[in-house]
Amino acid sequence: MEAELRERVRRLLADHDPAGTDRLDFLRARFDAGLAWVHFPPGLGGLGAPRALQALVDAELEAAGAPDNDPRRIGIGLGMAAPTLLRYGTEEQKQRFLRPLWTGEEVWCQLFSEPGAGSDLAALATRAVPEGDGWRVDGQKVWTSTAHTARWAILIARTDPDLPKHRGITYFVCDMTDPGVEVRPLRQLTGEAEFNEVFLTGVRIPDTHRLGGVGEGWQVAQTTLNNERVAIGGQAMPREGGMVGVVAATWRERPELRTHELHQRLLKAWVDAEVARLAGERLRQQLAVGQPGPEGAAMKLAFARLAQELSGLEVELLGEEGLAYDDWTMRRPETVDFNGRQAGYRYLRAKGNSIEGGTSEILRNIIAERVLGLPAEPRTDKDMPWKELPR
Ligand SMILES: Cc1cc2nc3c(=O)[nH]c(=O)nc-3n(C[C@H](O)[C@H](O)[C@H](O)COP(=O)(O)OP(=O)(O)OC[C@H]3O[C@@H](n4cnc5c(N)ncnc54)[C@H](O)[C@@H]3O)c2cc1C
Asked: Which of 348, 355, 366 to mutate to test the pocket of ligand 1 (most atoms within 8 A of CB)?
């Protein structure tokens, strides 16, 4: 298989010289050659090959100067929508959505959180009511990253308020350009509006855009959430990749800022970052043979803790200079660029890392219950009809 993949990469590069080929044409050809996600089925960007071989393909294409699909801009599509579509989508849905998702022609967002349903996501109140050959959706979502650039959304909505909260939810693909979808910017601590409120008023969703069975949305959402944690916390990294590299570089370049105490802290954080990186390698090996399990929660937790510790250390190291902020103008960025901005930005943005994609407290609960097998939190509302829950 390895030899076949190398040969396919060679052929792709011979037929589409990256230097002279339009970026999008190259990405489409790469998808069609089965080299987008090698573990996806043939015809859907893959070859049914072992997932671990993706790294080989990526490295060869990068070395040849091939364009990438800007994974940070389309992170929700790649990290959350694609694995969910692959597992629960119909053949038509997979054919329609996966190619433009992977090439980045269509950006995705995630309409999960609501003002009264964050950590307790199953309490969500957005309603989907059958109407004609589809559904009419009304409700409000919040903290929706990249909704302002998204063409499609993964959406969970309540379809049966008489059932207990986890059982009356259904999963849909929502067209963000449809009438009734209103996206309003929400400004963050950094001054940017990277996420949004999304109001859904009488939005019509055809039944062909349902993912999984009616009432089975919670189960489908578990696939999304498990993949989300891996997407946030389990990225492949070179040694000193990410935030630790930025702080270590400042340490090396600015000897006048060093103190013994900061040195001790940097060394400890460096070791933690390396442990997290190697644990991520192990997680990816596990992923090569199956779906991500609750272990992904540990990676996401470690990522958030490290990002906050390192960004705090950097600000302390830089003293007054670390407190300076580059620009408070409200921006609507398409990506989160940790490394391309100043220390003050990194410090403020990292605060969100322990909230987005599941808070650290909730991830600890998941680890306690599903990895360590400790007694579960008391859940008094598990079997109560959703409509009777106090809200
Ligand atoms: C930068 C950023 C981007 C985001 N992007 C998206 C997005 O694209 N799409 C989307 O749907 N959502 C998104 N979110 C929302 C995010 O998933 C939620 O904010 C998160 O799940 C927490 O929910 P909440 O804000 O309602 O807090 P709450 O659930 O109200 O929690 C408040 C606090 O109470 C704690 N807590 C709650 N329940 C328990 C418990 N049982 N045990 C212990 N502690 C508990 C929490 O951990 C937290 O510290 C984003 C958030 C951020 C910060």
From this structure: 355
